[in-house]
Amino acid sequence: MLEKFSQIWKLKDLRNSILFVLGILVVSRIAATIPIPGIDASGLKRIFDNNQILGLMNIFSGGGMSNFSIAMMSVAPYITSSIIFQLLTMVVPSLEELSKEGEYGRNKINMWTRWLTVPLAIVQSVAMIQLLRKAGGAALFSSFTPMNMLVAVVSITAGTIFVMWLGELISEKKIGNGISLLIFAGIVSGLPGLFTQTANNFTQAEIINTVVFAAIALVTIIGVVIVTEGQRNIPVQYARQMRGGRTVGGTSTHLPLRVNMAGVIPIIFAISLIIMPQTIAQLFTQAKTEAVAHAAQWVIMLFSNQWFYGGAYFVLVVAFTYFYTAVVFHPDQVAENLQKQGGFVPGTRPGKPTAEYLQNIVSRIVLTGALFLGVIAVLPMITAGLAGTKSMTIGGTSLLIVVSVVIETVNQINAQLAMRDYEEI
Description:
By secondary structure, this protein is mainly alpha-helical. 74% of the residues lie in helices and 5% in strands. It has 17 helices and five strands.
C-alpha cells in the first residue's frame, strides 16, 4: 500500500491530477455551506432531522439542503437530464445515430444535457422550496417574499450549474467519475455528524441494533467489492495471418465481462427517481380540484410505506443496472471489432453468432449483479425498519455508494499507473 502511494506521488502529472480533484472537492463542500438569505437554517435542519425522505435527499446533497445553500440541489438536475437523454437515445433514431458518431456525437448530446439541466434546476428548486413549506416549514418561509423566491431560484440554479462544471473538471482528470465523486464527498462529509447523532442518542437497548447494523455494513462492503471486481472471462483466439513474410496472430487471450458494468450509476439513478413522485405530489396537496388533492395525498401515503418504498427502490436499481449496461456495452460492436482483428470465440462463429453469444452471457451475469446490488441496497432499509432506527437506512445506502465510488476511483488510478508502466517499457 505504501509502495503504491509512493509510486503515485513520484508521478508528477498523476499527483497533480489527484491534488486537483481533492481541491475541487473542497470547493464543492465550500459551496454547500454558502446559505441563501431569508431562512432560519437551524429550524430547517430540524425539519430534515424529523423527515426520513428529506434526510435521504439531504445526505446526497452533502447537507446543502438543510443549509439552504446555493448548492442545495447539487447534481440532481444534471442526473435527471442525463436520464432523460439516455432514454431518448434508445427510442429516438436520430439521437441513436448521433450517439454512434464517436466523440462528436457524445459532445453534442452532452451539450444538450447541460442545456436541459438549466430549466430542470429551476423547476426542481421551486418544487423543493414548496416541498419544504408543505413539510412543516411554513413558519420558516413566512417572511419569504417573491423577491426572496426569485433570488433563491436563481442562486440555486447557478449553484447547480457550478457544481455540474466542477464534476466535469474532475472527470477530465480521469481519476474517477466527477458526479459520483461529488456525491461521495457529500456523503462522507455528513457521516461524522451522523455518527455523533447516533452516539448522543445511544442507549443500552440499542446495542443489539448497532451490532446488527455493523454486521450488515461489513457484509455490504464485502458484497460490493466481490460484485464490483467479479468478471467472466470469455476466451478469444486470434487466427494466424501472414503479413510481409511474417506470421502474426495465433495468440489466445480473453474478453473480460464484469458482473456489474454500471458501477454505482444505477443507485444514483434510482435514488433520483424514487424521491420524485413524493416531491411532485407535495405540490398538489392543496390543489383546488379535490380529485387531484386526494391523488397527491394517496401518492404521499404510498411512498411513506417503507415496504413499498423499499420494493420500488429495489426494482429501480435492478432495472437501471440492465439499462445502463445496455448503454455502455454493445455486443454487436464488440463482435464486429473482434472479427476485424481476426479474433473469434472458440466454438462460436464470428459476426452475429458471437454477438448473440456475448449478449446471452451478459444477460446472465448482469442478472446476478443487478439482483445482488438491489438486495444490498434495500437490506439496511429493511433492518432499519425492523429496528426502528432511521440512521441505518441513510447509512446503509451511503455506505453502498461510498464503497462503489472508492473501488471505481482506485481502479482508474491503477489503470493510469499500468498505462505509464507500459509506456516506460
